Amino acid sequence: VPATVLDEGRTTVPARLITEFISSLSEGPVNVELDPATQVLRLSSGVHRANLHGIDAVEFPPLPGQDSEAIVEVDSAALQGAITQTVMAASADEASPVLTGALVQIEGTRLTLAATDRHRLAVKTLDVEVKGSAPAVSVIVPARHLNEVARAINPSRATVAIAFSAGRNQVFFTLKDVEVSSRLIEGTYPNYQQVIPSSTSTTVSLPTAALLREARTAAVLARDAANPVRLQVGSGTLTLRAQTAEVGDDEAPLSATVEGDDVQIAFNARYMLDALSVLDSEQVQLAFNGALHPGVIRPAGREDYLCIIMPVRVA
Question: How far apart are CA 101 and CA 247, in angstroms?
Answer without folding.
Answer: 37
